[in-house]
Design brief:
Aspartate Aminotransferase, domain 1, alpha/beta, globular, Aspartate Aminotransferase, domain 2, binds pyridoxal-5'-phosphate, 2 domains, 43% helix, 13 helices, three-stranded antiparallel beta sheet
């Protein structure tokens, strides 16, 4: 069965083998050397002034970012489940939260962010997804971040890049905190969160807030190639392996270009067989199709050895999401598009004529 859900994503065999060694003790020169090499690779990946690895799922990094960087009021962008989560974290910690809320297919605009900043002069941080995975939409993070910084450079910009880091090159010039996680574009098992920080963020963090996610404690330790608490040793080994694997396969720019082409080819193939895309501005990490029969399409796809994700909450059964994150062979991605067309035929919706396959290849190979 091809796992084509937008997280978890398949772990490459070489990475699984790298993680199969004996468990290392985390306070040893041997592990610290691995930690240091992985840190160097993360600086290249994120392009930020500081990087941290946290033993938690992605949500832990979101919580750490909010409590350490939003001291008076958070502006959270809610166009889906993950944006909503930023607001819930703030509320759970007694931090005031203003929210810009949209249907899950609609990104936030620069104008409404500007308006929220004008009416709430006490906002000191904004939290936004680069890709909101609930509907696969791409927020205009770069434009929003630049408006925020023009308004007041002291406002911290927290960008959740869990389905964007490793997908596309992110302009971090106005981002203070960039979050990533192991089980999406980084092709690892779940359990490791990654965070990039700007120097301005480090200054604001000061002596830190919280306990487990006190970022000041982590910065101090990780600069010495160790962690405040027990490190996720096996996942760190996996992360070094996966980042080296990306290099061996042609590097980050090639990964970004291939991912963009796969996404484009899949979107065009879906449209060519009469399907509708859900988000008004799709991200390249996944293709989300809106369809009344989404649930049936998903179950029929299993007959063709393809596993894609549905939605959550109110759009649980009315969308399906095809992953594009990671090092994916074009023949697999092409089969997925073909399988959707086969499923439509099987459901009596449209007679199979190979259109999805043909369009995918034409777009992917630029014919
Ligand atoms: C998966 C995901 C998360 C974090 O989820 P965890 O289950 O805590 O790892 C956060 N934001 C986005 C955009 C995601 O896709």
């Amino acid at each position: 069965m091809l796992l084509f859900t937008p997280g978890p994503t398949p772990v490459p065999e070489s990475v699984r083998i790298a993680m199969a060694g004996e468990t290392l003790h985390h306070r040893t020169p041997e592990f610290e050397a691995i930690f240091e090499r992985t840190r160097i690779l993360l600086f290249e990946l994120l392009g930020m002034d500081e990087v941290l690895m946290l033993a938690s799922s992605g949500t832990g990094a979101m919580e750490g970012a909010v409590i350490n960087l939003a001291h008076s009021k958070l502006l959270s962008i809610n166009s889906g489940k993950f944006g909503e989560r930023f607001g819930k974290i703030a509320v759970a910690h007694g931090i005031a939260n203003v929210e810009i809320k949209h249907e899950w297919d609609t990104p936030a605009t620069v104008e409404e962010v500007q308006a929220a900043l004008n009416t709430n002069p006490d906002i000191d941080a904004i939290a936004i997804q680069i890709c909101e995975s609930a509907g696969g939409l791409r927020h205009s993070v770069e434009a929003i971040a630049s408006v925020v910084k023009a308004h007041n450079p002291a406002i911290m910009v927290i960008a959740d890049g869990i389905t964007a880091v490793g997908v596309e090159k992110i302009d971090v010039s106005n981002i203070d905190c960039l979050i990533s996680g192991s089980q999406k574009a980084l092709m690892l098992p779940p359990g490791l969160a990654i965070m990039g920080l700007s120097n301005a963020a480090i200054e604001k963090i000061g002596s830190g807030k919280g306990y487990y996610f006190n970022l000041a404690t982590e910065i101090k330790n990780q600069r010495k190639n160790t962690t405040a608490w027990t490190a996720a040793t096996t996942l760190t080994i996996g992360l070094e392996s996966v980042l080296n694997r990306i290099k061996a396969e042609g590097g980050l720019d090639k990964l970004y270009a291939d991912t963009a082409r796969r996404a484009q080819a899949t979107r065009e193939a879906m449209k060519a067989i009469g399907l509708l895309l859900y988000p008004t501005k799709p991200a390249d990490s996944m293709t989300t199709v809106r369809d009344a029969d989404a649930k049936k399409i998903r179950s029929t796809l299993k007959e063709f050895d393809v596993n894609v994700a549905g939605g959550q909450d109110h759009i649980k059964d009315s969308i399906f999401r095809i992953n594009h994150m990671g090092l994916i062979a074009p023949y697999e991605a092409c089969w997925v598009a073909n399988a959707v067309e086969l499923a439509l035929d099987k459901m009596g919706r449209r007679v199979y004529d190979g259109t999805a396959n043909s369009v995918f290849n034409t777009v992917y190979f630029g014919l």
